[in-house]
Records
---
Amino acid sequence: MPRCRCHCCEGCSGGGGGGGSPGGEAEGGRGRGPSMKSLLLSRFLVLLPWMLLVIVMLDTGGSPRAPRPPPASSRQPLSQPPQHPGAPRRREAELPVIYTITPTYSRPVQKAELTRLANTFRQVARLHWVLVEDSAVGTELVSRFVAGLLRSGGPPCTHLHALTPRRFKRPGQPRATEQRNAGLAWVRQRHQRLPAPQPGVVFFADDDNTYSLELFQEMRTTHKVSVWPVGLAGGRRYERPVVEKGKVVGWYTGWRAGRPFPIDMAGFAVSLQVILSNPKAIFRRHGSQPGMQESDFLRQITTVEELEPKANNCTKVLVWHTRTEKVNLSNEPKYHLDSVKIEV
């Protein structure tokens, strides 16, 4: 009887199934069992984590990697000590003190101009403001102004007063002589009580000028007497010392060029040591003419050849003799009519 070749008989367990050949059983086994490709993939997935672990350990040498050094641009020199939070304060404390002597007098714009000046000075490190009133006593307005300045964290401020005699208030007389001399006397007396001379600079800053912060950086390195241009002075856009090869050789000025020092009061600063070494150097009232006080004072302590040009060899204007426009109070009543009294 011929053998059946249908697939249904090869795999069945019936009577015809017992006569199936062994080859048919082998073929059915290959169809149900896993393929070689699947077997290799499963073994690869088992070994993959161990292979990655070996690679990582070989790359690191079996120990944590040392941190990379910072870029060369951010490295500090070997001689520079590490920065400390207190270092900026220590450096600031080593700066020479700038004693700024400011004469002031009662007028409608006085408080406004003092406020403007205070907002500049509070941004200057190591500045001591010597504010001198032209008054027999300290006025309430300036006293309150100074107290508010100190409460708000402003610069140290010393409030003085020195009255200009009536006979010297005529037109044509030098102004603010007594006030500047009172400021100089205070600076000298202060340093008589200190244990040792300290580096510093003395600067005469009128309250109607405008000052760049850069000016105070320039003057702080004064060795004897430093000079620079002043804007809006002498009837010109600016006045300045003329400098050649680092020395003052002349003056660009529009008023009385023949003066020994044709310079504005805001155009120079004096070393504290020079002030202390010349105790008789003051602003002279007798024999002095308007516009000559700078020359009269500087002739007592220096010469033109010794002047130190600042502000890029006296080619930059860092202070302006602005002055304030005269206030129009034509509508102000003769007697106070408002229900409250306001300080302006």
---
Amino acid sequence: MASTNASVVFSGSKAVTSHEEEHPVKAFGWAARDNSGHLSPFNFSRRSTGEEDVRLKVLYCGICHTDLHNSKNEWGSASYPLVPGHEVVGTVTEVGSKVKKFKVGDKVGVGCLVGACHSCDDCSHDLENYCPKLILTYGSLYHDGTMTYGGYSDTMVANERYVIRIPDNMPLDKGAPLLCAGITVYSPLKYYGLDEPGMHIGIVGLGGLGHIAVKFAKAFGCKVTVISTSPAKKKEAIEHLGADMFLVSRDEQQMQGAMGTMDGIIDTVSAIHPLLPLIGLLKSQGKLVMLGAPDRPLELPVFPLILGRKTVGGSLTGGLKETQEMIDFAAKHDIKSDIEVISMDYINTAMERLAKGDVRYRFVIDIGNTLAASNP
């Protein structure tokens, strides 16, 4: 395998520019090279700052479970070398001549996407996240045909349309996960009308998504019940996160006692699990919204849906306008992610712990203070 630091590698008789020489601006990060998922130091390059681009110094980057899946190619779509990270925050270091919304020194973030077609129906309705030509922050081909690299790196550049302003009172480290986890739960609560004061909302799973969902639902004025397989999480859910009730999903008596009491349920669990008990918790016309992505199809019982005119839906992150709305709302209501800050060289251990669910509730890499020290 050719060195990633070489300026040119050869494929047959054809010279191919290396990752380090592909663009004018030098960059450094950590990348996975194969489906072992192991990440290690990686020299590469970023494009020059275009007229509508914003360049930022990355200070923090959250670790999403998606990063683990992609690093190991568990969804079969990874392209190596892969620099993960789509919960990216930092400060602006350069702006293009046509940039209007940002200036050098601003606190900003980049979430799950960095490009779209801007001409389809979804894009015209500020739903770039559903664009058929969506360009993800890492592991996608950009408009110029080069691969996108994520936030496990010292610098990023993005079109200003895809840059989010971070409010002054939002800490960058605790705000970083909101750019994925935050918008992923905020968007369905709003879209499915589960944000009305007095509604009873169930949150399935108390992890990176679930703990933020509890905070948003409470900020909307809803009554919140956490639904979990683990009784040990009850104290945390109620005393720390402010949930009103707690249900152990394996306790048939508890579940039976809550039948028909909830207006909506946000299901954040990615493991295979039965939907029938959750549908039973819904009132007539209640809504079960799926955010987790199990690796096999779930069984969906139809009769309980018909008999109660109930809905099962899904949701995927959010558009840029809604993401800005979300983080402004979070700042106003003091909603922050509960995090464990780590150094860059701890990343592989963090990934192992994430696979076991051993994090409360989101790892965030201190890029600004620890990435440079890892650069050989």
---
Amino acid sequence: MGLMETVTQDEEPNWTLCNSIAAICSLSELKPALEPAMESCLLQTTLKICLTSPRHNSLYTKQQKHMEDLEAMLRNLLATAPSLGRLQFLWEYLTSWLQSPGAIDRAKAMRSSSALLRFAVSLLLQFEDLPDLPQMGDTAAQLCLSLSHPAADISCQAREGIYLLAQILLHHKGRDMQEAEGLLHLSREQQSQVQSYMDLAQVGEVFQKILSEGQRRSFAQRALEGVLDSNMCVSHAALILLYTMLGEAGHLIGDKEEEIPARIMRKLLVMKGFK
């Protein structure tokens, strides 16, 4: 870790960095799991190296290898103690990267998040039973807010992540995972802004039925923070999700599709005006 923090990605070839990341990936396979403080340091350092965009195109191939190592590390750390709590623990380290203003960094974080959720689904039969975690509502909202991102690679990864997370939560509650099937039919092609709003409302309605009360509060809190975001795309998406979670989506989405943007803007201005 000390070596990783002192070398820069601009050095070419940077075998020290590559070998350090590979070593950390191997350490993550240890059982029993590493001490929490050590795991925290490993995650923070590796995420910073792997998710920060390289300054030179010549480093692209090396970054791809770094991403593969990062995803392997996340899988190893989840496999040491498969549970919803463990999944949430790992997710929290990705949160700040999922909100990165840089589209490239955010896209890489979304890719890692989807890979982690995909692996979690494969381990569901090994998951330990735990009480509902309110923080999972925040996780769901983070993915939903990225669904309408203008970058296609981010929105596509978010769509997959939403479906995977719904499966995980349904399994945890002992419910039929087929309830998440409706999320598979979200539009995957280039779509109008109005269709994007409709998809968001549909996703919000699905999670409203899946999440516990504490998780719905956590979801609504994240959506409310998004309403105040300076990125209007996120603000619109957040407002739709917030109203859907409150069961009031009808106040935003009327019978005529052309009215939807104006309705959203009026509600958004009112909410921001009253803080």
---
Amino acid sequence: MWRSCLRLRGWGRRLLSGPPRGLAASLGSGPNHLPPARAYAPPTGGFEINLDHRKLKTPQAKLFTVPSEALAIAVATEWDSQKDTIKFYTMHLTTLCNTSLDNPTQRSKEQLIQAAVKFLDTDTICYRVEEPETLVELQKNEWDPVVAWAEKRYGIEIGSSTSILGPSIPARTREVLVSHLASYNMWALQGIEFLVTQLKSLVLALGLMDLYLTVEQAVLLSHLEEEYQIQKWGNIEWAHDYAVQELRARTAAGALFVHLCSQSSMVRHKLLRD
């Protein structure tokens, strides 16, 4: 585990978590010496990624540093998965890290939270159809349990509506969700907004982050009406399958990013509490 944390095979990429001489001292010189599972202190500035001994930079030429070791390993693995041609559009974790580091739109924590909560006004699973009856029943059977879970989980009211104006969301619901999202750091919030945008639903994103839903379930629920139409009329198979796989990949990356960015702060909070 020690070696895999510091050096990832392929393309000479290396995850740096401390000075080289620290590694040598930890490994020791004896042939039977086994390194400890964690014998170094993470660098103050975060974890870096090296590509062929060159430091990775963001589009704005900032040093690419991430807040947790787990996220650094995930990003390095993402780079290792690239073959002859680097396909940046498949590197969702790297892209999210670049966005968090560069913050190209210069948004504050409050603005990120408000952007996510605003999705309640057009949340996919809050908009219902009035016909056909089979689709009405499908939405009720599949979406109502998720809404009920969110209302119970956060002690709020969400509801649903068939009006083009959408449901009337109580002010307290927004306040509770704003307070909940404020517990996340800036990096995690970038991932949350990305996740909400992919699913077109804050409720589904919350269910996914809370492990109430799987990635496959969240994606399916976000495109329930489209799946209904496909079952009824058929589809262009390759196009639909490709789109679903792409959405699953982006959604999975967003959820993983949120968890990996929340990991270190959650651990510190637990240690301080205990």
